[in-house]
Structure formats: C-alpha cells, structure tokens
Design brief:
The complex is a heterodimer. Chain A is α+β, with helices and mostly antiparallel strands. Chain A is built from seven helices and five strands, in the order αααααββαβαββ. In chain A, 29% of the residues lie in helices and 18% in strands. Chain A has a five-stranded antiparallel sheet. Chain B has eleven helices and four strands. In chain B, helix 3 crosses helix 4. The chains are: A alpha+beta, B alpha/beta.
Chain lengths: 204, 201
C-alpha cells in the first residue's frame, strides 16, 4: 500500500535533529518488550507487525513518536487475532485506544525467475493493495544487481499471515539521478529488492 | 494526539499498561518477561559489539576479510546474537573514495543487536525522507562535510538483511591495541553519519 510510512524521497522535511536531544519515556522499554514477546510467541510475525504500523491513519502516524507506532501495531494485531476486543482495551486503558485501519489483501510471489550479479533490472510498476516492501521511489526504475541475499519469506504474503514462500532478495544499485532527475544529490542508492518485485529489462 | 481534539485518548503509558495486562492474561507472558528482556537488551545489544568487530577488522586482516564476506558469521564468531528475522549482516567498507550511509525509509530497521538500539535521529521522519535523496546535504547538516570527490552510497534497509558500516581507521590510531580502538568507534560512524578521523593519539 502507498502508506504514509513510505517516506523515502518525500520533500518538505527539515533538518535532522542531530545529535538527538535526550528524552525520558518510561513506557518505551515496556512497549519494546511487549512487542518482542508477541513476536517470540508467534502471535504475529515481523511483516504483520510492520504492516500494522503502515495501516495507521496518516495523521496518527505522523504525529506519533516511534514507540507509539509500535504500541498501536501491537494493539491492532491483538484485537485482530482475538486476544482482546477494542472495548476491553479501552476499558483497561481508561480512554480511547486508536488502532490501525485495514488494507487490501496480501498476495503470493510471482513465478520464480533469477537475476545475475551485474544484470540490469527494472522494478515492476506495481501498485500493491496490501503489505509490500518496495519503496515507492524505486517503482518502475532501472538499476543493477550488485548482490544476492539469503532467502526470506515473501513479505506481501507474510504480512497477511498467508503461507509465505521464501525467495531471494537482490541488492540493486540505482543512481540517484535516475530516481529523481535534476532534483537530488549525486549518490548511489542501494535497495534490497525481493525477486517478485523485479523484471528483466530489454537492454540486458 | 494531534487528531484528538477532546483529549479522550488514553496516554501511551495507559495504553502500554493495558497491552501488558492482555499479554499476561491471554498470551501467558511470564511475570518477569519485561524486566528480563529489557535487562538483556540493555546489557547485550550494545554499540560496543559492533565497535569490537570494527577494531578487530582494523587489526586482523583475516577477520576483516571474513567480516566483509559474511558479517553475520563474523559477529557470531565473536559471540554476538541476532533475532530470527535478521538473516544477514552486510558490512559496508568505507574507503578514501567511498562513504556508505544506512537508512530504513519505511520503518527504522537496524542491526540493533550489533550496533545497539537505533538513535532517535535515525528514526526521525526527516532523516528517513531526506537522506536517500539529499545524502550529501543531510550529512553536511549533520556535521559531515564530505569532499566532492567522495562517492556516497546510501543503503535502504528494505529487506531482512541488516547493514553496518566499517569506518575508516583514523591514521593516528595505527598500532593501537584492539581494546583501545574499540573505545573510539561510535554508533553514528557504524551508521555512516560521521567519521572518526579527528581522533588524536
């Protein structure tokens, strides 16, 4: 989904607050631990967790600190997986408990194909309704495979608790000027791209 | 919350406490899990792990080669751990001509067991949005003014492998013992937001 989380290359943002100003949030380690427990207990997987964050209402996403996004995702998944109802959560919390919205369905990988190191590839021009780990700034763009990574569960399926086949990811190198012509600093952008997101180019 | 004009939303503290109750009652979360996990994370998943790997890479060419070939195996050889979903650790070697910098534009993934929990600035939406497109400008704003001849490589953590930068060893530290070297390696340098060259003997 083209959610608010997909920030790479978005404009209008300001200076990075660096070094980070100190902050004391006593509930943050608790949220980190709760989320880790739910993952270890296989209540949900990492892709479902990421997707639950992505499904937050854009206004909430942008306004929430990092661990409030985690907190919202944990709560959303516990409700969706029938551990608790929203009403019970709100009673326990003594107030409203905003949860993430829903998204389109997941999907299975496309037919296996393989790419070689040094090969030119194109990221498919796809608009995926559910979870996807392809940042929008590489959609439809051409890059070069520079590395092949171990097999990972296909996130578009795993993020929807579907049986997720394993597939390779490729380290694909793009030139920044191919991604944002005339409007970027010169750099090489490396993105870990799942095999199903890629297609051959005619010019290989 | 910005979209909560009547302030009816429970505070994050209240919401986190509610989730803790649910996980205890319905998820069979042990009484001591939160404390044990937090202590483990704070004691074991620290920047010093990555710093020790960097220091060894600077002093031991065979280890450096192993670390560049398979960062996860090299880390595990030193006794460091990974969560199940971190399937690979890719070590990015800075050179005099190439500077690597890491980001996760879609969330804030990091090799947190190796370089420590991500700093707030790394999780900042400003960093996530801008560093892929305005790398040189953002690094300069953060105090790292790279020569025009330096090639910048930006690595977006979109899949389940993790990155760390192997910084350049400051020339003044040649011949230092590993332990002393590890003490000068910072988390920011292993992300690629800073360099270490200003270290004096």
């Amino acid at each position: 989904m083209d959610g608010m989380h997909d920030l790479g290359g978005k404009q209008g943002f300001g200076r990075v607050k660096y070094p980070s100003p100190p902050h004391e949030e006593t509930w943050e380690p608790l949220v980190r631990a709760l989320s880790a427990f739910a993952i270890r207990k296989h209540i949900y997987n990492m892709d479902e967790f990421r997707h639950a964050i992505e499904r937050m209402a854009p206004r909430h996403y942008m306004a929430a600190p990092y661990y409030e996004r985690h907190l919202t995702a944990v709560a959303t998944l516990l409700v969706e997986k029938d551990y608790v109802t929203r009403e019970e959560l709100e009673a326990l919390a003594s107030g409203a408990f905003p949860l993430s919205g829903s998204s389109g369905p997941g999907r299975l990988p496309s037919s296996p194909q393989s790419f070689a190191i040094g090969e030119k590839v194109r990221v498919k021009n796809e608009f995926v309704p559910g979870h996807v780990r392809m940042p929008a700034y590489v959609r439809g763009k051409v890059g070069v495979v520079v590395g092949i990574s171990p097999l990972c569960p296909f996130p578009d399926a795993a993020g929807h608790s579907m049986q997720a086949p394993m597939e390779p990811t490729y380290d694909v190198r793009f030139r920044s000027r191919d991604l944002w012509p005339d409007s970027c600093d010169e750099a090489l952008n490396h993105v870990g791209v799942f095999q199903s997101y890629l297609e051959k180019t005619e010019t290989t | 919350m910005a979209n909560d004009p009547d302030h009816s939303t429970a505070t994050p503290e209240q919401r986190a406490a509610a989730l803790e109750i649910v996980l205890r009652r319905k998820g069979e979360m042990p009484e001591t899990f939160v404390e044990d996990f937090t202590n483990h994370a704070e004691e074991k998943w620290i920047t010093d792990n990555g710093a020790q790997m960097v220091a060894r890479a600077w002093t031991d060419p065979a280890f450096r080669a192993r670390m560049l070939a398979d960062g996860k195996a090299a880390a595990m050889e030193m006794g460091f751990q990974f969560p199940e979903h971190h399937r690979q650790l890719v070590v990015l070697e800075n050179t005099l001509d190439i500077h690597n910098v890491i980001v996760c534009t879609q969330c804030s993934c990091t090799a947190y067991t190796i370089i420590g929990a991500a700093p707030d600035w790394y999780k900042d939406i400003d960093y996530r949005a801008r560093v892929v497109r305005q790398s040189r400008t953002v690094l300069r704003e953060m105090g790292l003014d790279l020569p025009a001849s330096t090639e910048i490589r930006v690595w977006d953590t979109t899949a389940d492998h993790r990155y760390m930068v192997l910084p350049l060893q400051p020339p003044a530290t040649k011949g230092w013992p590993e332990e002393k070297l590890a003490a000068i390696v910072t988390q920011d340098a292993m992300i690629g937001a800073s360099q270490l060259e200003k270290v004096e003997d």
